[in-house]
From TrEMBL:
Lineage: Bacteria, Pseudomonadati, Pseudomonadota, Alphaproteobacteria, Rhodobacterales
The keyword Electron transport is assigned to this record: yes
MF terms in GO: electron transfer activity; heme binding; iron ion binding
Signal peptide: 1-21
GO biological process, one term: electron transport chain
Name under which the protein is recorded: Cytochrome c
Length: 152
């Protein structure tokens, strides 16, 4: 029984190392997929805030709920793999500064999580409520992009 207990503990400790052992291409693909999911949900909310998409409370709340779920995911390891920056790979938008300032990047990911908190309820009640949520979320996105994303 002790052997099983120690094996489980060893597996749990080694799991974070698995991400670092992955191929750089896989990490970049996962990071880009994560960011694409955020972009899709933000696009729905931004479209509603601008009046480009008809306000639909259920869709707005679902998009905000998805953003909450995405910010609950521990994405920091996707931004911590050396060799995956824009200096290393043409297909990457991550600036090398992310590796130099990983604590700040973590703080900014936490700020996005905080900005998303409560947003499913905040977007309810009409199109006029969506703009403030988009501004709050967009500000958190911009803070990270300004420092750690290669300009397009």
């Amino acid at each position: 029984m002790q052997v099983l207990k120690y094996a489980a503990l060893a597996a749990a400790i080694a799991m974070p190392a698995t991400i670092f052992a992955q191929d750089a291409e896989d990490v970049i693909e996962a990071r880009q997929g994560y960011m694409e999911l955020i972009s899709i949900e933000m696009g729905k909310l931004a479209g509603m805030a601008k009046g480009e998409i008809a306000y639909d409370e259920a869709v707005a709340s679902a998009a905000a709920s998805n953003l909450v779920a995405l910010t609950e995911y521990n994405a920091a390891p996707l931004f911590a793999v050396e060799g995956t920056s824009s200096d290393d790979v043409d297909d990457s938008s991550l600036l090398p500064a992310a590796f130099e300032n990983s604590a700040d990047l973590g703080t900014k990911l936490a700020a996005l999580k905080e900005a998303a908190a409560g947003s499913p309820e905040a977007v309810m009640g009409g199109q006029q409520n969506v703009g403030a949520v988009v501004q709050k979320l967009g500000g958190a996105c911009k803070a990270c992009h300004d420092d750690y994303r290669k300009p397009r």
